[in-house]
Structure formats: structure tokens, C-alpha cells
């Protein structure tokens, strides 16, 4: 069929009364009819009198039966592969056929079929739907659809000839002469010329399959109560065999009057698609050219149609956006588009090659022997160490296939092996992995993004490899700049495993005789509001903070002054305590008055763990009272990364003083920064901090319910997804239930749930932020059973 012929839609000539009779006779459906906009078919929505809402479609006379059969079978295939994907379902006729043949008044035969009606609002008609979140979610849904169709085949997949097929773009090219605006006509010609020379040959090298290729804003439905949530894809009339790139650019072509950045639109849709159906580099690199071609085709088709006798028939809303966005996209340029698209999908800016992974042995005894031979006899967590071979989300899997619910590890904060982080690491590692002695975009971008919501005096990052290194370096800087060498910490603190941070971690040496304690470190009484000396005192904050005066004086007597007060604001190792309001600020002010600094150790409290991104804010420590922030553990979601955040002024003073050649070989390497960037992506996209705060409250609520049944639970406390459960043998005396705590940890392991402890009688629960109520219920039910067993 020629392009000129395709320009004429030749809509079937059936009156509403005729359609009503046909559908009632062939399908037994009647109701209220509303005609729907359609390019070449006749479509009606029927609000059925029997409660069934459907859409009836009468095909154009030129539609081959095989193409309709393909669409019907594709819908059935999608339902088999992804039943929850919101696409129409085929309603068979009374005769059990997926479609029926009918004749119009002129004797021409047409196919009629009925599909289920999908509720929702058309995206392009909802102003609130023109958002980054909506675009990303549309990309996800279109990606799921393409993924469901990846193994679908039909002999007519290549026979659905229509104007909008991007692989047949050159058939539309002669119509460019009908574009009235000379400037637009020239731009369209340039785009078609590039398509012939580059875009179409490259398109043929991308993955090809049956695709929807019509998921623009007129065919995507959104939730009326949440415009960011797409709830349906309709109109499979343009389906055919093509590149998966065609699906992405079609979903990226719907713009609003206030959109002025088509690359941003394309990036949002692409990153969503990529999260559901991972893209390859050549596909990402071609998206700019393909979208330009799609916009040029749309511009030409709209103008060519206006030159026919069918001009004025409404079909495409806001068609004037096509040329406007085509010009904007062209001006932004290919280099900028490719760069941003690669960043959106966490592809490195330059090429990538695949790498093979290693296979771990499944023989437990052999592996244990080899480990002890080569790594020494150091074991953690359990008497019989677990042999974990893989993990995903909230679960860890042993070599024997046993699944363990992880309630302990606070490193994979956004879930084990999050695919977005894994892809970012792989893509960056495949291109470049080097240190900060070289200029690399990703390190600069990550530092800027990480500090974006911090006050002006916290604007500079130093990257290292772990939380221990970050705390060590922050303390070194504090000592260098204050010219003081002492340190204040909270009792039972843990800040790292280097020589300096071990001294700052009395968890490591509090059991030793007093004469063996570090002389330049002083420990503050933990602000315990459950069993501490001021637990019931309304002046608890001031009274606990007064211990800082004692500690500073004690240091002075030994010839030291505090260079810094280092504090994990989650008080995790101290039993996940909840300090009284303003306690941290009172101590900080006392230390700063002596010339010392305040180091907020966010290794455990940061990255959303406490219900806000920064743990110090969750616990009321004022921005102005902080001189350093340190991060580690979850900042790379398992990839080695540590960060010291300080002011540029302090940084310059330090570099001009004691350490002019400060450098970490691996700190801030490109792969680590890519992992960090991906973690921030996931936190934002999945709204994990807000979600974690809500689920954490639900967890503590359920634990509180258990406490009403089990007197051994003395206290439940925490913020966000950090919870402490203190166990006692007697609630009146608050005698620590140390033996029972160990038994419960082992018993929960036997129930395939991993938990740990902060203090000898306090369970430390740090599940990933991706938990839902389902995981809470699994844990609480198992914990309930375990408590009953040991009561």
C-alpha cells in the first residue's frame, strides 16, 4: 500500500445503531455507546448493561486478517507471560471466535472484535501526569510489555504496514514537500537524510521483535488518584516486528506546553524501560536519532494529512508539539543526549565489555577448610558459619538453596544486589576504573549530589574505601587543625578497626583494666532512657550532657584536650538508644567551646536508615554543630566506599598543613562513585526513605504488641529502619537477659532469619529499606514463636 493511500484513513461506515445491533447479536453485549478517537478503525466504548465495560473495534477495510489475528494472539501471549500487565483482554463472540466478519452497507467486509475496557485517564489529558516520575513509570510498563513479547512470533508480524513504522520512515520522506514552513521542512529533510545514512542502518543492528510501538500519551492510561502511576496500555493496532527502540521513542513523544527539554523526557522513559528490560549500549546510543526521526515523521504526517480531503478530522491532540520538540531536541544535540541517556541508565560515558563471574564451591566442608587455611580462623555471627552464595532484595541464599530473611546486615540498605546498582558497577567497570588523580565526571557529580542538601559549610568530599577509613581520616584532620589530640566518644561506641578508630571504639577495650584504656580518649555515659541514671528525669538531656564537662576535665588532667567528639547518632553499638531531645547539641556545644570539632559518624545512621537521609537530623543534631560527616557501609550498597564531608575551608587548611599529599589509591574510584550514584537513584526513585520510615514504625508497633505477651521484651526503640529490642529477665529490675538473647539469635537462625545484637542483651534489627509489611509479618511471627519456645 502506498504512502498516499495510507494517508487516507477510510474509517468504516457503520452507524451507532448498526454497531449496537451487531454487537448485541454477535456478542450479547448492550449498553451505552461512546465513540473513541481512532486513526483507521472505528472504535466505541460500551458501558455494558450487564456490568461489563468493553471496547468494540471495527477494522479498516484494508486491514489484513492476519494482522488482527496477530494482535489477538499477542494479547493472549502477554497475559501468559505477565498476567498483571494492564493490557486489554480479548472478549470472544457468542460463537467463541476472537473476532467476527461483518459487512457494511456497501457490501465491504470488516472484522469486528471486542476487548475489555481498561479504567483510567488518558495520560496526555492529565496535566499532572507530565512529570519525571510518570515518565519513568511509563518506561517501566512499556519495558515490561516489550519483555513479555520478546519470544512472541507471528507470520504477519512484518505485514502490518502503516505510516508510523519508524523502520519504514523513508516511505514518508516524499511527503516532506507538504510541510509549509521552510525551516521545518529543511530540518525534516536533514533528519531523513541522516536516517538513510545512519539511523536506519544502526536500527537494524538493535534487538528486533514484535513491539507495541504506539505507547504515546494517547494510549497510556494513568490512575485518576495518582497521575504518576500508569494503569494501562491500549491500542495494539500499530504492533509489528521492529526494534525495541521504537517502543521507547514512541513512549517519549508526548509533550506538554511547558516541556522544554525533550532529552529529559527521553531519559526518564529510557531509564524506566531499562529497569524492566535492560538495554544494550547500541540501543541507548541510538535513541536520540530515533526520537528525532519519530518527531520528523509525525510532523510530516500531520501536515500531509492536512493536505488531503480528510483535513480537520481530529485524531492527534496537541500535534503542534512535534515540530517544537523536534527543533529543541535538534538544538540540544546528539552528544549531550547520548551523555545524559547513558548517565540515566548508568552506562559509562564510554564503551563497555562483558565480564565472567567466578563460581563458588558448593562443598561446605572443603570451603571451610580452605577458608581457615587461607584466611585464618576468624568467624563472625554464628558458631557454624553460613555459606551464602547469592542474595537478592531482603533475602540471602545458602549453597543448599535455603533462603534467609536478612534482618541484620545494614550494608545492602536498598536490598541485596539491587539490579540498578549492579548494572552501574558493571557498566562503569567495563569502561574505566581509576583513581581521583585523573579527572572523572562521575566523582565530581557524585560529590555534588551527595552534598546538595547539606549546609554551605559542608560542601567538600574526601573519598576513601570504608567507614573505618572515613572516621580515621576525619579524626586525623580534627587533630591536625585543632592541634589537640584527645577524643570523646559514647560508651560502647564502635567507629572502626584502624589503630586510631579502635581507640575511639571502647566496645573494643572497655573490658580491659583501666590502666590499659587509651589515655587520650574519654568515654561519656550513654544517654540511656530505659535503664540509665536519668531515664525518668525531665532534665535528662542536660544531666547526661554534663558528663562531657567531667570528661573534658579528665582529659585535661592527663594532658589532653578534645580534638573531636565522634558520635554515631543512631547509638547503634550502645543498644540503639534514643537520646533525650537536644542531648547531642549540648555535648557538641561543650566540645566546640574547647576548640574541638564534632564528627557525625553516619556509617550506620545515614543514607536513610533513620527515616531521614542524614541520621544526625533525625536525632536533632543541628547542622551548625557539625564539622565533619563520615559515611561508609550502605553508601555503596556493598561496594567499598567511604566518605568524609567537611568544609572547603577546613580541607584547604589541612592540605596546606600536615598532609599536602592526601591521597587514597582506591578512594573515590569511578566504579565506587558509580555505585554511590546508583544508590541515590534508587533511594529517590523508590521513595525508600519515606517507605522505610513507615515500615519501621509498623515493625516497632508489632514488636510492642509482642511485648504485651512476652515480659522478656523490656524495651522497643528506634527510628526508621533501625530498631533495638532490649531483653530482660525481670521488667522491674531490668536484669539483662544475656543468655536468652544468644539463644534467640540461634533459634531465629534455625527459622531462617538472621538477626544480631548491639549490646549483650539488645537485639539490633537493621533490615533493608525495601521491606514491606510482608517481611515484617514473617519476622514478627517467627520471633513470637521463638519467644514462646524459650519463655
UniProtKB/TrEMBL annotation:
GO molecular function terms attached to this record: transaminase activity
Pfam families according to UniProt: Aminotran_3, APH
SUPFAM superfamilies in the cross-refs: PLP-dependent transferases, Protein kinase-like (PK-like)
InterPro entries to which the protein is assigned, alphabetical: Aminoglycoside_PTrfase, Aminotrans_3, Aminotrans_3_PPA_site, Kinase-like_dom_sf, PyrdxlP-dep_Trfase, PyrdxlP-dep_Trfase_major, PyrdxlP-dep_Trfase_small
Cofactor: pyridoxal 5'-phosphate
Residue span, Aminoglycoside phosphotransferase domain: 34-268
Entry keyword set: Aminotransferase, Pyridoxal phosphate, Transferase
Keyword Transferase on entry: yes
Annotated protein name in UniProt: Aminotransferase class III-fold pyridoxal phosphate-dependent enzyme
Lineage per the UniProt record: Bacteria, Pseudomonadati, Pseudomonadota, Alphaproteobacteria, Hyphomicrobiales
Amino acid at each position: 500500500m502506498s504512502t498516499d493511500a495510507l494517508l487516507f484513513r477510510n474509517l468504516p461506515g457503520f452507524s451507532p445503531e448498526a454497531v449496537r445491533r451487531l454487537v448485541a447479536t454477535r456478542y450479547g453485549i448492550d449498553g451505552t455507546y461512546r465513540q473513541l478517537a481512532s486513526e483507521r478503525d472505528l472504535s466505541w466504548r460500551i458501558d455494558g448493561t450487564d456490568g461489563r465495560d468493553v471496547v468494540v473495534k471495527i477494522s479498516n477495510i484494508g486491514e489484513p486478517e492476519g494482522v488482527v489475528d496477530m494482535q489477538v494472539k499477542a494479547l493472549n501471549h502477554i497475559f501468559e507471560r505477565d498476567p498483571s500487565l494492564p493490557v486489554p483482554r480479548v472478549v470472544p463472540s457468542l460463537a467463541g471466535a476472537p473476532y467476527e466478519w461483518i459487512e457494511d452497507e456497501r457490501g465491504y467486509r470488516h472484522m469486528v472484535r471486542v476487548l475489555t475496557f481498561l479504567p483510567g485517564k488518558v495520560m496526555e489529558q492529565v496535566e499532572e501526569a507530565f512529570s519525571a516520575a510518570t515518565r519513568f513509570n511509563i518506561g517501566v510498563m512499556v519495558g515490561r510489555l516489550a519483555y513479555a513479547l520478546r519470544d512472541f512470533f507471528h507470520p504477519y508480524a512484518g505485514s502490518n504496514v502503516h505510516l508510523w513504522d519508524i523502520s519504514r520512515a523513508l516511505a514518508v520522506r516524499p511527503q516532506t514537500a507538504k510541510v509549509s514552513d521552510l525551516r521545518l521542512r529543511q530540518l525534516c529533510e536533514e533528519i531523513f537524510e541522516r536516517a538513510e545514512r545512519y539511523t536506519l542502518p544502526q536500527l537494524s543492528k538493535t534487538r528486533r521483535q514484535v513491539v507495541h510501538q504506539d505507547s504515546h500519551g494517547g494510549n497510556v492510561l494513568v490512575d485518576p488518584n495518582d497521575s504518576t502511576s500508569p494503569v494501562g496500555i491500549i491500542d495494539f493496532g500499530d504492533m509489528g516486528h521492529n526494534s525495541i527502540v521504537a517502543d521507547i521513542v514512541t513512549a517519549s513523544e508526548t509533550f506538554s506546553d511547558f516541556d522544554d527539554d525533550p532529552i529529559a523526557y527521553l531519559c526518564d522513559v529510557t531509564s524506566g524501560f531499562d529497569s524492566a528490560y535492560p538495554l544494550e549500549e547500541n540501543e541507548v546510543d541510538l535513541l536520540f536519532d530515533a526520537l528525532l526521526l519519530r518527531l520528523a515523521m509525525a510532523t510530516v504526517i500531520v501536515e500531509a494529512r492536512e493536505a488531503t480531503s480528510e483535513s480537520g478530522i481530529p485524531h492527534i491532540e496537541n500535534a503542534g508539539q512535534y515540530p517544537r520538540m523536534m527543533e529543541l531536541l535538534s538544538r540540544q544535540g546528539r552528544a549531550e543526549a547520548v551523555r545524559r541517556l547513558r548517565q540515566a541508565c548508568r552506562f559509562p560515558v564510554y564503551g563497555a565489555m562483558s565480564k565472567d563471574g567466578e563460581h563458588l564451591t558448593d562443598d561446605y566442608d572443603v570451603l571451610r577448610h580452605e577458608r581457615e587455611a587461607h584466611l585464618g580462623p576468624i568467624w563472625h555471627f554464628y558458631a557454624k558459619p553460613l555459606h551464602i552464595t547469592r542474595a537478592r532484595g531482603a533475602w540471602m541464599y545458602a549453597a543448599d538453596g535455603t533462603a534467609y530473611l536478612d534482618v541484620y546486615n545494614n550494608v545492602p540498605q536498598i536490598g541485596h544486589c539491587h539490579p540498578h546498582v549492579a548494572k552501574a558497577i558493571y557498566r562503569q567497570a567495563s569502561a574505566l576504573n581509576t583513581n581521583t588523580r585523573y579527572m572523572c565526571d562521575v566523582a565530581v557529580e557524585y560529590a555534588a549530589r551527595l552534598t546538595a542538601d547539606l549546609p554551605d559549610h559542608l560542601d567538600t568530599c574526601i573519598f576513601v574505601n570504608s567507614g573505618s577509613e572515613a572516621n580515621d581520616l576525619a579524626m586525623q584532620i580534627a587533630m591536625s587543625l585543632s592541634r589537640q589530640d584527645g577524643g570523646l566518644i559514647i560508651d560502647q561506641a564502635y567507629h572502626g578497626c584502624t589503630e586510631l578508630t579502635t581507640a575511639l571504639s571502647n566496645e573494643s577495650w572497655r573490658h580491659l583494666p583501666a590502666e590499659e584504656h587509651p589515655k587520650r580518649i574519654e568515654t561519656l555515659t550513654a544517654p540511656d532512657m530505659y535503664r540509665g541514671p536519668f531515664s525518668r528525669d525531665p532534665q535528662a538531656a542536660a544531666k547526661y550532657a554534663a558528663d562531657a564537662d567531667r570528661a573534658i576535665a579528665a582529659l585535661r588532667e592527663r594532658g589532653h584536650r578534645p580534638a573531636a567528639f565522634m558520635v554515631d547518632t543512631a547509638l547503634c553499638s550502645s543498644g540503639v538508644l534514643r537520646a533525650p531531645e537536644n542531648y547531642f547539641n549540648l555535648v557538641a556545644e561543650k566540645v566546640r567551646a574547647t576548640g574541638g570539632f564534632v564528627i557525625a559518624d553516619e556509617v550506620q545512621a545515614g543514607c536513610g536508615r533513620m527515616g531521614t537521609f542524614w541520621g544526625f537530623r533525625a536525632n536533632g543534631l543541628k547542622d551548625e554543630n557539625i564539622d565533619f560527616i563520615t559515611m561508609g557501609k550502605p553508601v555503596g550498597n556493598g561496594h567499598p566506599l567511604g566518605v568524609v564531608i567537611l568544609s572547603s575551608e577546613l580541607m584547604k587548611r589541612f592540605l596546606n598543613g600536615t598532609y599536602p599529599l592526601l591521597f587514597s589509591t582506591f578512594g573515590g574510584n569511578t566504579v565506587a562513585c558509580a555505585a554511590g550514584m546508583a544508590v541515590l537513584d534508587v533511594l529517590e526513585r523508590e521513595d525508600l526513605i519515606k517507605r522505610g520510615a513507615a515500615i519501621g514504625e509498623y515493625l516497632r508497633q508489632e514488636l510492642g504488641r509482642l511485648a504485651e505477651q512476652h515480659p522478656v521484651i523490656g524495651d522497643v526503640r528506634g527510628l526508621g529502619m533501625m530498631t533495638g529490642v532490649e531483653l530482660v529477665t525481670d521488667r522491674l529490675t531490668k536484669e539483662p537477659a544475656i543468655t536468652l538473647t544468644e539463644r534467640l539469635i540461634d533459634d531465629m537462625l534455625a527459622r531462617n532469619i538472621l538477626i544480631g545484637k548491639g549490646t549483650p542483651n539488645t537485639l539490633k534489627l537493621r533490615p533493608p529499606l525495601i521491606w514491606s509489611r510482608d517481611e515484617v509479618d514473617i519476622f514478627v511471627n517467627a520471633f513470637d514463636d521463638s519467644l514462646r519456645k524459650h519463655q
